C-alpha cells in the first residue's frame, strides 16, 4: 500500500492557539501533516519554525489552511482560500453566524471547509439527533471570568456590575446568532452548537461572568421528540489568553489528524 501524500499545512495566526498547533505540527506529532508556513500580521522573525508568508503565498504552497486568528480572517480570506482549491479548517466558528457568509463558504470551491468543535463536546451526537428531526429546545450557558468578557460596547453600569461582582452575573442573554457577534473572541462555542443543530436562532445562550470561576464552563441542554441531552465541560483558561480554553488548540490538532487520515479517530 502506498503512503498517502502528507497534507501541506499553512497556519494563519501565531497566538495562543497557533503556537501550540504549529509547534506540534513542526515536531511531527501529526502523522500525514506537514507545517509549511505561518501567516500573521506581525513580523515573527525566528519565533516561528517555518517561513512566514502572506495568504496569497501560502495558497501557492499549501493544500490545507488552518485558521487560528479570529473571525475577521474567516470573513476576509475564507472564500479566497476555498476558491483557490485549498481546504480550510476554521477554529473561529463565530463568523459562521452570518448566514450569507456561511452559505458562501459552504458553496465556494473546489476547496472544502471544515469546522472544529473547539472547547465543547457532544456536537457529533447533536448532529446525529438532528438527522431524526429538529430539536425543540437547545440552551447553552457559558461561564467565564469577568475580565475575559469585557467588551467595548458595554456601558459603565454593566462594567461596574461585572467588576464588583462577588458571584455569577449574567452579562448577556440571546441567541447563537447574537452572542458571538458581541463576544467575538470568547463565544465560538455558541456558534459551534448552532452549526451542529442547524439553527442559530433556535439556540438560546446565556453568558455569565463569575469572579470565582477557576474553570471556564459550557453547559449544553437539548431536548426533542427523540430524547434529552446534557453536556457539561469545565476547562482551565489558557494562561496566555484567558478568553480561550487550554484545550482548544488540541481540538484543532485532533481535527487536523482526522483530515490527515490518522486511523483510530472517533468521527
Automatic annotation (TrEMBL):
Pathway: Cofactor biosynthesis; NAD(+) biosynthesis; iminoaspartate from L-aspartate (dehydrogenase route): step 1/1. This is L-aspartate dehydrogenase. The active site is at 218. Residues 13-106 form the Aspartate/homoserine dehydrogenase NAD-binding domain. Residues 166-252 form the Aspartate dehydrogenase domain. Specifically catalyzes the NAD or NADP-dependent dehydrogenation of L-aspartate to iminoaspartate. Its EC number is 1.4.1.21. It comes from the Bacteria. Belongs to the L-aspartate dehydrogenase family. One of its GO terms (biological process) is NAD+ biosynthetic process. The keyword Nucleotide-binding does not apply. GO terms for molecular function: aspartate dehydrogenase [NAD(P)+] activity; NAD binding; NADP binding; oxidoreductase activity, acting on the CH-NH2 group of donors, NAD or NADP as acceptor. Gene3D superfamilies: Dihydrodipicolinate Reductase, domain 2, NAD(P)-binding Rossmann-like Domain. It catalyses: L-aspartate + NADP(+) + H2O = oxaloacetate + NH4(+) + NADPH + H(+); L-aspartate + NAD(+) + H2O = oxaloacetate + NH4(+) + NADH + H(+). Keywords: NAD, NADP, Oxidoreductase, Pyridine nucleotide biosynthesis. The iminoaspartate product is unstable in aqueous solution and can decompose to oxaloacetate and ammonia. It comes from Streptomyces spiralis. NAD(+) binds at residues 119, 188.
